[in-house]
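Why run this: before we spend reagent on co-expression, it is cheaper to look at a predicted model of the complex and decide which construct boundaries make sense. The entries below are exactly what would go into the expression plan.
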Amino acid sequence: MRELSGGGRLVARIVETEAYQEDDPASHSYRGPTPRTDVMFGRPGHLYVYFTYGMHHCMNVVTGRSGEGSAVLLRSAEPVEGLAEMTRRRGTGDPQLLCSGPARLAQAFGVARGENGLDLVRGSDLFLLGGDPVPRSRVGRTTRVGISTGRERPWRFVVRGDPFVSRGSSRRASSPRESSPRGHPPSPLKD
DNA sequence: TCCCCGATTAACT
DNA sequence: GTTAATCGGGGAG
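The model came back. Tokens follow.
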């Protein structure tokens, strides 16, 4: 959720994420801390924003302890409130195109490099809310999207059958196979 | 310095 | 299904 300075707010329900960690060749943190990835190695609960393909920004929540280098990429969400503002930012009113995709989600929320390092737990207009927990049976796990190494790690998590999960993923030829998570599903984030 | 390519998207054929 | 857009990170020289 993001509170807007002019009043009003943007709310979206996260339906797709991917996990990245330090011993993971697909992770920006793989080669150790750099000016770009310092935030990933910082305190958990902060926002790591990266710029890619010369035009897109993506949002991550830092998850590991200080010094650790892990984060969760927010890939897709269902827009819930503030659709008009998201539409203005995105240039399309199709709800399925507002927040489905990591760069689309960041654009809808107006997040760019300036927001890198924000504390999502305290003192920010951008933060996470705990909602109704997603039942374990609805959590699907697949391989990650758009990476060239570390493909085998099944660290993408989706709400099964949710129409707001991004397409880039479920559509590809070498389509990631969806399976039930083993062990513990991601626990819902609390305040 | 040079060079390759990326945790993507939209617009093509 | 394919490709242009667009630029910064970071390894190689």
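Residues 28, 31, 34-37, 50-55, 173 of chain A lie near DNA strand C (CB under 10 Å from a C1'). The mean pLDDT of chain A is 91. Bring this page to Monday's planning discussion.
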